[in-house]
């Protein structure tokens, strides 16, 4: 049976505690993390929360992104 993006994302969150879009792209090759999160929430009924974080990009501009994690 083939592993889906959704399965990989869930496994990553369980292994590392959270995931960002950069983690998903770099480590899993997933380019639409929010779609996988939506499926986990609505198809599997998981309580996945998100919090916004800020950082600077390579040009020094402030950027905001979501970090997803499973609720306790």
Tell me the β content.
25-35%
How many alpha or pi helices?
Answer: 3
Shape: globular
In helices, the fraction of residues equals 40-55%
- Count of DSSP E strands? 3
Separation of termini? 29 Å
What tags apply to this protein structure?
alpha+beta; globular; 72 residues; three-stranded antiparallel beta sheet
Notes on the protein architecture:
With 72 residues, the chain is α+β, with helices and mostly antiparallel strands. The chain has a three-stranded antiparallel beta sheet. β2 and β3 form a beta hairpin. α1 crosses α3.
Write the layout of secondary structure elements.
Elements: H1 5-16, E1 19-20, H2 21-28, H3 33-42, E2 48-56, E3 62-70
Question: In brief, what are we looking at here?
Answer:
The protein has 72 residues and is α+β, with helices and mostly antiparallel strands. 42% of the residues lie in helices and 28% in strands.
